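Students often ask why we bother encoding 3D structure as a string. The short answer is that it lets us treat folding as translation between two languages. Here is a chain of 199 residues written in the first language.
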Amino acid sequence: MGRLPTLRNNYDDLKKLTLADLKRLGLMVPQHQASSTIKWTRRGETTGEISVLVSLFKTSGYVEFDYTYNRQEQMNYRVQLVQLPSNLRKGHVWYFICPLTGERCRTLYQAGKYFASRKTLKGTLYESQTYSKQYRWYDKTFGPTFKAERAYNELLKPYAKTHYRGKPTPKAKKVMKWEKAEEQAKVREPRSLEDYLYR
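And here it is in the second language, the structure alphabet:
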């Protein structure tokens, strides 16, 4: 009898909050306090909602979370923020301080009641890690072609531009990225499914 599969959480299914999300909402303004509401949706339906209040000082700050857990428990707590010099020596970078582990991170995932770093989610996988070996071969071999085609179709839409002020637009860069990946996939070994499965 075959072994039953081990069911694990999937990062792609978890609610998450990144510093890029807060920046996109205009909340990461030094010496300032700002608030907003963030919603998660799936197939057009709201699956979660959280109120955030960001308060930044010169090199530190906090994010205050306010939401209802499991439709019955009201959660309100703060996650500290810290700003450190970039490893590239270009400016500074903000980090969350995980409320459960105390480590620095750029993304928080909902781990039970709290939003915390991924180290608190032992055994959790990314969706691609749950794919079979055969599916991964198909994705590596043909995935770049499909993605390049989708990116190219975006450029064919009305008002889409390939260049702006002499530089490629983000959509054009995406086409170039996947075309390059497509060329690399054509020369990558192994070239057959059998080679990949049984090497």
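Translate back mentally: The helical segments are 19-24, 133-155, 170-187, 193-198. Keep this in mind for the problem set.
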